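To: structure subgroup
Subject: Chain for Friday's discussion

All,

I'm putting the inputs and outputs inline so they're searchable in the archive.
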Amino acid sequence: MTQQTRTPSAGETAIDTDALTTAQKAALTSGAGDFVTESVGGVPALSLSDGPHGLRLPKDQGDGGQLDLHSAAPTTCFPPAVALGSSWDRDLARRVATAIAAEARAHAVHVVLGPGINIKRSPLCGRNFEYFSEDPLLTAELGGAMVRGLQEAGVGAALKHYAANNQETDRMRVSADVDERPLREIYLRAFERIVRRDRPWSVMAAYNALNGVPLSENRRLLTDILRTEWGFDGVVMSDWGAVRDRVAALRAGLDLQMPGTGGRTDREVVAAVDSGGLAVEHLDASVSRLALLAHRATADGATEPPGPVPYDAHHLLAREAAERCVVLLRNESSLLPLDPSAGTVAVIGEPARTPRYQGAGSSQVTPTRLDTPLECLREFAQGVRVEFAEGYRLTDDEDPAVREELAADAERLAARGDTVLLFLGLPAREESEGFDRDHIDLPAAQLALLDRVLAVNPRVAVVLSNGGVVRTSPWHERVPALVEGWLLGQGGGSALARVLYGHANPSGRLAETIPLRLEDSPSHLSFPGEEGHVRYGEGVFVGYRGHDRRGDEVAFPFGHGLSYTSFTHSGLSAVVRDEGPDRRIEVRVTVTNTGGRPGREVVQIYSRAPEDSTVTRPVRELRGFATVDLEAGESRDVLVELDRADLAHYSEREGGWFVEGGTYRIEAGASSRDIRCTVDLRVEGDPSRVRLTGRNTLGEWLTHPVGGPLLLDAFARGRGARSGSDAGAGALADPVMRRFLAGMPLEVIAEFPQSPVPLSQVPALCEQVAAAQG
């Protein structure tokens, strides 16, 4: 793995905190303005910028500042995470981040506020366009690649929003109430993977509370888990305006409050130190970490004037990325790609002329240029006539007479066209940072237009433009071709045209499930909560984990995506390589392009837990993936290495991550519902850390790898030692009685006159288990 900018030694970054006054230290730990930190005591000021998919650079921070979302200087607008997630391409994500870093350097930006790696718990979240996936592994792989791309180029990443920030409703106050297992397995897992492996320079604490404690004041999350458990050595900054109690936040491990408050909270910090309410050690630790961030951001030539930004090359990269993000959901009778030299293509829908290419809110970018689908379709056409009809307006104040006129014009064009490209999607007013969606349906006027178009021409390809999932049922069954175009950034228009004409073969795969109905979403009954709390009642069964476990029918499953060619998978094998605690599982599968043109397959590797798992597990979970480019007829062996540790579940009883021993089923597939081949793999389990007591149940004793054999041996030796003990020991052979007794604590069973192990022997048994465990 490529290492980011080296970690400076203590001598290089040490700051003499004793030489600073308390007021200077307090000033360092809060912003000087909306997007800049203070310069104090030799620590330079740092410039920050929104930028998950491109830099948002206000032309004048004094005029509108952070709330001015529309007067930013031009920078390259790459596909937002909702699209980039569908690429399943680590290298592409890294290259996009490297380009963003180059632009950041040119504009003297030291830290980019991203990537956002929150899990898509509900399709209603208004900010889902900023997040990669409903799956933590896919999120970690793409988010980690962006962290590496930024930091290898000398620009800091601010990993966000830590943590369980999965809705916009009441986002600055709501408490996400999450049990420990789903918190660890779903909502912290991507953060943990990236922090441990990719070493981000900063992490942004979220607005929300977790289990009643605001994230900016949550010592367990910011210090115990992030720093002590995961080894994070960077800066924890607040989301903008998230700090409620600055002193409590510093005690919890928050280093930097953003934006600045004009000195108000600095004075609170000074007063708290003077009164003994805040230990100066907490403040000094934050100052030292900020000095380290400043060193990292200005080291290795970062202060040297950069060369000119290659905006043309970045635009081509934005187009390439957009091509990789397009997902072909449906293509009956091979309606696509279009024949570029014959017939009339009827392009209908205002998004073809006025594309929506990014989401609304703090991530909004002013693009350096913008490709529109309609212009690019005409540019790529050869003998084709490309005609256009608006079809509907993107505003919601359309006059009924105008609406009918637009729909009638579109219907007439559809009737005379050989093929219809119908552009549908969500208007910007329906999804944005700051609020959640009320439904997942397309606007009624668009669905009515779809019916009219299909009535006069069955050769319809629908092209979607949306930042969050939209319901496609039941109408998608009547449409021969369906393309999910997401929000594709400034190069999306040419990317769509190239895919529709076949210049690029679609290779995007869904990073989230498209349900038949909103009501099928596993989080539906508890989203977005009430009275300041949202209960994550679905536990670990988020997204496809929930749909697959319940056996729901879905419109399109997680991982789904078609190509203009076809692929087969064969020869699956899996082997555990013993290399100490970092044991790997090598999975190999042969992929063959069985179609007539070059294409890219995304090989998805899932695992199924042993059937006798002691906890309820998803049917399958993504464990690894790889992309492979194949010429027509070509075969290639693909190696996907899995972390054995990824097979673990988080066990409160075991006190952490725990790999159960047993037979795991390893699956290779094209989606979570399209498994092509499987192989069973025997995996040695972790030694149990549970210290058994008399209060543990008989069932827990019998399934414990150490306690089980000891107890059975004690039962066998106890036969005949007490009157009637044969009957007691024999009860274990009766399956009904064994189940009856399984839920009883051992010390309760030991009190029975028939028990072969008396209560007096239980402490000795517990000591034997502890001694064997070491």
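Points worth raising on Friday:
The chain has 23 helices and 28 strands.
Confidence is low (pLDDT under 50) at residues 1-11, 720-727.

D.
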